C-alpha cells in the first residue's frame, strides 16, 4: 500500500495528545486508588469470564514473522498507563525485522551503484577508480576508518551542493581484484569472486586495508566442512553474520559521531547522523539528500514540525532495525514514520497495533486507522470490537462515543416497524413515531449512507409483519390510527422495489397485531398476535397463497402468543413427520 497523502490529519493527533495529558492528570490525581479500581474491575471481568468459559482476551498463540520481546516496565511507568489502556500499558514490545540488515545493505548497494551520496574514491595503481561511501568501508576496514577520522566530514560539501569527493590512492600491494572484493564484502557480506585463484590477492588486500573479518574468511575458506552443509548455505550464513557485524560497526561509529555529515535540529535537540543511512531507511530523507534540494548541501537542517522523541526513535531504527513500542508512544511514532516515509518502521508499528490490540485500545486504533485511510487496520480493529463487544461497550471511552461513530442514525426514532432484507438492502416500513402515531413510510436503510425514502404505503400501520417473497415485500396485520386510539389493521399490501409502487392484496380475515411471520414453500405464514379491539390474544395461524390470492386458516398454535418472532430451520430427515 502506498501512502501519498500530502496533508496529515493533525486534528486527530491533537485529540490524541490531549487524551494522553488527560490520562496522566487523572493518574496523578487518582494515584493508587485509580489503579486499585482498575485491578478490581479486571478481577470481576476475569471471574465472569471463567464462569462463562471464555478465554482471556490476552491469549495469543499465532507465531509472527517478526521477532518481539516483551519487557516489563518499572512500577512508576505502570501507574502512567493505568486509566487509559489498563494492563496493556504495563509492558512495551521491541519489534525487529529479521531481514533488516539485508534490506538496508541492498539499498546501500543500489545507492553505491548509482553513485548517490558516495563521498570517497578508491584508486588502484593502474588508475581504476571505485566510488564508495566512506562510512560503509570504514565499518569493515581499519585503514579507511583511520582516514575517516583524519578528515573533517562537514567540509566534504561545497557551496553548490555537490560532494567534494575524497580520494585515497591504494598502494601497489592491493590490485583491482582485491579492492573489488573488499567493496563487495562491505556491501554484501560475502565475496563472490573468492576462490583458489583469487584468494592470495584478496587476502593481501584484506591485510593491507585492515579488514580482519575478510581475512578470517580467507583463512577459513579451506577449512569449511563440506560434509556438514552445502557451500551455498554456508555462504548465506557467513553473509548474514557479516552484514550484522558491519551494521553494528556503523552503529558504533554513529554513537561516537564518527563520519556524521549532517545535524538534524528538532526543538533544541540535535541529532548527528549519516546522510546515507537515513537515505537508505527513509524515502523522505532520500529525496531530501539526493534530489538537489537546498538541504542536500546543508550541514545543519531544522525540522520544526517533527517531534524529537519520535524522530530519535526512528533514527535508532535506521541504525539498529528495532523499534521499542508501547501504547503511550505507538500512535505518535506511527504518524512520524508515515510522515517521514520510514516504510519498514511504519509496517512494524502497524504490526504492533494489530497484535497488541486490547479492549481499552481498540477504539483508538479504529479512529487512527480511519483518520489515515488504513483500511486493513480498520477492518481488523472493527472485527476485534465486534468479537469483544461486551467488554468494549463497558469501557468509559465507548460510552462517550456518539452512535454516529458506528452507523448512520435513522432520521427519526421509530418503534413497532416492519423490517426485512432483500437484494442486499434493508427495508423498513411503518411503525410508531416518537408521538406513537402509526406511519405510512417506507425507506431503504444503509449503515453508511443512511435512509432513502421510497413510496408510502396506502395504509398506516405498526406492529405488523413484513416478508420478502419473489422479489417483493408483503406487509400484513398490525394496528392503525383511529382518532386518539388504535384499531386493527386488516388491509394488506405488497411493495415492488423495481417500480417503487404498492398494490393491495387480500385482507386478513382476523386481526394479527404483534404476530410472527415466515415464508415457507413460497407461502407467507402469520402466527399468533392479538386483537386491538378487545386485547384478546390469539394462537391462530393464517397462510397467504400467492397463486390463489387468498388467506387460509391453518389451525392454532399450542397456545396464545404475541410479540414473538419466527424463523425457518432445516430439520434432518429423521426429525420430519
Features:
3 domains; 4-stranded antiparallel β-sheet; 577 residues; alpha+beta; Potassium Channel Kv1.1, Chain A; Neuraminidase; disordered N terminus
How large is the count of helical segments? 19
Q: What kind of assembly state do the chains in view correspond to? A: single chain
Q: Classify the helix fraction into a percent range.
A: 25-40%
Q: Give the beta-strand count.
A: 23
Give me the side-by-side strand order of the main sheet.
10-11-12-13
What portion of residues belong to β-strands?
Answer: 15-25%
Secondary-structure-based class equals alpha+beta
Radius of gyration from CA coordinates:
36 Å
Terminal CA distance = 57 Å
Major sheet = 4 strands, antiparallel
Low-confidence stretches: 1-10, 47-87, 157-161, 225-233
The number of domains is: 3
Shape: elongated
Please state the average pLDDT score: 82
Q: Could you give the topology of this structure?
A:
Blueprint lengths: L9 H43 L14 E6 L2 H6 L1 H4 L5 E6 L3 H14 L6 E4 L5 E4 L1 H5 L3 H9 L15 E4 L6 H13 L10 H10 L3 H9 L10 H25 L6 E5 L2 E5 L1 H7 L1 H8 L9 E3 L5 H13 L1 E4 L4 H10 L3 H13 L6 H10 L3 H13 L1 H5 L2 H4 L18 E5 L2 E5 L12 E5 L3 E4 L11 E5 L2 E5 L2 E4 L2 E4 L3 E5 L4 E5 L10 E5 L2 E5 L12 E6 L4 E7 L21
Parallel strand pairs: 3-5, 6-8
Antiparallel strand pairs: 1-2, 2-9, 3-4, 6-7, 10-11, 11-12, 12-13, 14-15, 15-18, 16-17, 18-19, 20-21, 21-22, 22-23
Helix pairs in contact: 4-11, 7-8, 7-10, 8-9, 11-12, 13-14, 14-15, 16-17
Amino acid at each position: 500500500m502506498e501512502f501519498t497523502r500530502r496533508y496529515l490529519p493533525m486534528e486527530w493527533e491533537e485529540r490524541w495528545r490531549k487524551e494522553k495529558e488527560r490520562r496522566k492528570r487523572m493518574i496523578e490525581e487518582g494515584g493508587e486508588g485509580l489503579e486499585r479500581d482498575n485491578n478490581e474491575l479486571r478481577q470481576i471481568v476475569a471471574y465472569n469470564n471463567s464462569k462463562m468459559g471464555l478465554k482471556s482476551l490476552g491469549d495469543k498463540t499465532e507465531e509472527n514473522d517478526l521477532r518481539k520481546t516483551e519487557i516489563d516496565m518499572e512500577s512508576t511507568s505502570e501507574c502512567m498507563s493505568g486509566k487509559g489502556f489498563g494492563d496493556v500499558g504495563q509492558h512495551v514490545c521491541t519489534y525487529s525485522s529479521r531481514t533488516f540488515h539485508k534490506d538496508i545493505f541492498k539499498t546501500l548497494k543500489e545507492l553505491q551503484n548509482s553513485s548517490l551520496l558516495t563521498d570517497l574514491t578508491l584508486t588502484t595503481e593502474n588508475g581504476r577508480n571505485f566510488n564508495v561511501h566512506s562510512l560503509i568501508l570504514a565499518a569493515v576496514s581499519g585503514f579507511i576508518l583511520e582516514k575517516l577520522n583524519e578528515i573533517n566530514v562537514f567540509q566534504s560539501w561545497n557551496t553548490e551542493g555537490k560532494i567534494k569527493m575524497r580520494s585515497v590512492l591504494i598502494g601497489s600491494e592491493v590490485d583491482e581484484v582485491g579492492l573489488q572484493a573488499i567493496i563487495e564484502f562491505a556491501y554484501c557480506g560475502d565475496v563472490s569472486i573468492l576462490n583458489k585463484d583469487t584468494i592470495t590477492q584478496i587476502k593481501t588486500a584484506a591485510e593491507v586495508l585492515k579488514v580482519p573479518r575478510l581475512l578470517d574468511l580467507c583463512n577459513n575458506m579451506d577449512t569449511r566442512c563440506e560434509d556438514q552443509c552445502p557451500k551455498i548455505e554456508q555462504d548465506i550464513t557467513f553473509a548474514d553474520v557479516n552484514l550484522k557485524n558491519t551494521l553494528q560497526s556503523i552503529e558504533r561509529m554513529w554513537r561516537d559521531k564518527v563520519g556524521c555529515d549532517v545535524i538534524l535540529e528538532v526543538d533544541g535537540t540535535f541529532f548527528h547522523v549519516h546522510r546515507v543511512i537515513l537515505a537508505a531507511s527513509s524515502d523522505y530523507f532520500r529525496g531530501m539528500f539526493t534530489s538537489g534540494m537546498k538541504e542536500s548541501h546543508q550541514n545543519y537542517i531544522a525540522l520544526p514540525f517533527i517531534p524529537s522523541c519520535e524522530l530519535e526513535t526512528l533514527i535508532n531504527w535506521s541504525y539498529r532495525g528495532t523499534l521499542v513500542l508501547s501504547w503511550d508512544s505507538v500512535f505518535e511514532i506511527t504518524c512520524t514514520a508515515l510522515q517521514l516515509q520510514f516504510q519498514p518502521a511504519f509496517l512494524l508499528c502497524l504490526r504492533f497495533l494489530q497484535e497488541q490490540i486490547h479492549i481499552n485500545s481498540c477504539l483508538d486504533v479504529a479512529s487512527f486507522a480511519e483518520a489515515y485511510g488504513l483500511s486493513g487496520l480498520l477492518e481488523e480493529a472493527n472485527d476485534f470490537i465486534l468479537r469483544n463487544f461486551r467488554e468494549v461497550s463497558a469501557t468509559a471511552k465507548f460510552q462517550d462515543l456518539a452512535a454516529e461513530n458506528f452507523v448512520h442514525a435513522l432520521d427519526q426514532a421509530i418503534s413497532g416497524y416492519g423490517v426485512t432484507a432483500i437484494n442486499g438492502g434493508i427495508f423498513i416500513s411503518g411503525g410508531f413515531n416518537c408521538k406513537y402515531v402509526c406511519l405510512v413510510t417506507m425507506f431503504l436503510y444503509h449503515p453508511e449512507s443512511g435512509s432513502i425514502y421510497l413510496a408510502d404505503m396506502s395504509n398506516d400501520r405498526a406492529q405488523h409483519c413484513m416478508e420478502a417473497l419473489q422479489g417483493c415485500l408483503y406487509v400484513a396485520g398490525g394496528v392503525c390510527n383511529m382518532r386518539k386510539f388504535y384499531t386493527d389493521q386488516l388491509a394488506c399490501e405488497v411493495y415492488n422495489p423495481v417500480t417503487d409502487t404498492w398494490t393491495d392484496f387480500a385482507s386478513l380475515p382476523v386481526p394479527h397485531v404483534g404476530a410472527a411471520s415466515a415464508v415457507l414453500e413460497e407461502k407467507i405464514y402469520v402466527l399468533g398476535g392479538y386483537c386491538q379491539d378487545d386485547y384478546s390474544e390469539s394462537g391462530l395461524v393464517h397462510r397467504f397463497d400467492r397463486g390463489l390470492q387468498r388467506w387460509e386458516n391453518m389451525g392454532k398454535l399450542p397456545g396464545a402468543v404475541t410479540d414473538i418472532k419466527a424463523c425457518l430451520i432445516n430439520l434432518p430427515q429423521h426429525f420430519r413427520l
